[in-house]
Design goal:
It is built from three helices and eight strands; from the N terminus they run βαβαββββαββ.
């Protein structure tokens, strides 16, 4: 399984999440978007509605009903009620339960750097996980060391 580490440096999370979530949807996958903080989930909900002025990224918040039909489901816990194979940890907190998914997007900022480094070391020691690091280069994400 693949774990993609995205260090948020210079681009706000409300721009990164819709960009990555949009790619997931374009590829015909479903996404569980996890953030423990209710305020952050609210911000992500708003940015998914307004990402593209001509449309929006279809989604809902867990607990509001209709979870199974949602391409993107926002939640405070790892429970893929929408049948997602991909999970995005948007709050910078690693959760081992994410390893049950086919792919993990792990977003973190400078405040969560120590935890991300620990997760990188721990996951790098496993044979069943391919950790990859992504950094921004001229506004685009590129895989890097």
């Amino acid at each position: 399984m693949q774990v993609d580490f995205y260090q948020l440096a210079g681009t706000p999370i409300e721009k990164v999440v819709p960009q990555l979530a949009g790619k997931v949807i374009e590829n015909g996958e479903r996404l569980l978007l996890v953030a423990g903080d209710e305020k952050l989930r609210g911000l992500l909900d708003a940015c998914l509605w307004s990402f593209d002025p001509a449309s929006f990224l279809p989604h809902a918040i867990a607990g509001e009903g209709g979870e199974a039909a949602q391409p993107i489901l926002l939640s405070d816990a790892i429970a893929a009620q929408n049948g997602a194979r991909f999970v995005m940890l948007a709050d910078g907190l690693w959760r081992d339960e994410a390893l049950a998914f086919a792919r993990v997007f792990f977003l973190f900022d400078a405040d969560k750097l120590d935890g991300a480094r620990k997760a990188w070391r721990d996951l790098g020691a496993r044979d069943d996980v391919e950790p990859r690091f992504w950094k921004q280069d001229g506004g685009k994400w590129r895989q890097g060391p």
